[in-house]
Amino acid sequence: QVQLVESGGGLVQAGGSLRLSCAASGRTFSSYSMGWFRQAPGKEREFVGAIARSDGTTYYADSVKGRFTISRDNAKNTVYLQMNSLKPEDTAVYYCAARSGPPKVAATSYDYWGQGTQVTVSS
């Protein structure tokens, strides 16, 4: 069982930055690939990016590539999402998720989810 808690969301102006954190419980954090997803009102949950459990390889959606960076600190059981050059269309609730296999794009592939943190980007 893994429990995930996101933090770091808030209100930021377009062009600004935020760093989200996702703290995981348990001593097996390093055995999980971690994903970030987001869901805007009236839209489906979409893949933002992920980081592999094995070698830390990262993957990103085209919409955030070059602006967002995912990293992990296994000693702190935490994964981060650094978001730069934010746009109003990045406004959503952001979720982290964990799965025991390699990273996947599909949200249904993840076993554990956090409660989400709101990110609002004003124009």
Account of the 3D structure:
This protein is mainly beta and 123 residues long. It has strands at residues 4-7, 10-13, 18-24, 33-39, 46-51, 58-60, 68-73, 78-83, 92-99, 112-113, 117-122. The strands form two sheets. Strands 2, 4, 5, 6, 9, 10 and 11 form a seven-stranded mixed beta sheet that branches. The radius of gyration is 13 Å and the shape is globular. The mean pLDDT is 96.
Helix residue percentage: under 10%
Q: What general outline do the C-alpha atoms trace?
A: globular
Cα(first) to Cα(last) distance is: 40 Å
Series of secondary-structure elements, N-terminal to C-terminal = EEEEEEEEEEE
Runs with pLDDT <50, length 5+?
none
Put simply, the count of helices is: 0
Question: How many strands in all?
Answer: 11
Average residue-wise pLDDT? 96
Q: What portion of the residues fall into strands of 2 or more residues?
A: over 45%
- Main sheet properties: 7 strands, mixed
Rg, nearest Å: 13 Å
SSE topology sketch:
Blueprint: E1 4-7, E2 10-13, E3 18-24, E4 33-39, E5 46-51, E6 58-60, E7 68-73, E8 78-83, E9 92-99, E10 112-113, E11 117-122
